[in-house]
Amino acid sequence: MSVPVRLTIQLAYAACAWALAFGAVSFFWAAGGQLGASTLGVRLEELGAARDPGFVALLWATGALKVLCGLLALALVRPWGRALPRRGLLVAIWGIGALITLYGGANLVQHVLMASGAVSTPAGLGSEALPWHLALWDPVWVVGGLLFLAAARQESAARQRFARRP
User: Fold this and answer.
1) pLDDT grade, residue 157 (50/70/90)?
2) Taking the CB of residue 77, how many other CB atoms lie within 10 A of it?
3) Contacts of 87 (CB under 8 A, 6+ apart)
């Protein structure tokens, strides 16, 4: 197996693992788990503790969406993924990577501005959750997005190399 193929497989599995782990956290909180909820912010912790039906439904939906994203990443390198249109799959992986990276990056910038005092920290976030977003949540989102982008880039490059073969 060539290095580019191995790298594509590793990146796809890493993106899938990221998405499944993040989905598991959403499912944990949706099922009523409270561990780590305080790192999200005051308002989200309150909604989870109150078992707000809309918030719980949102957690289940985001968990399912994260699992779907993980399966799409895996479809890049698994035989069953060949049943999906390659161009559409690559567009989806590029889009997922871009959205996740932008989301994490925008949050990181916003939270850096809050931490520096340039903008105020909303009461719904709270000053205790802000360091968690800076040190954990925002970078995790950025890393996840970059994994999807790297997998898409590697697969796109492999497709181009294959298309150029005589």
Assistant:
1) confident
2) 18
3) none
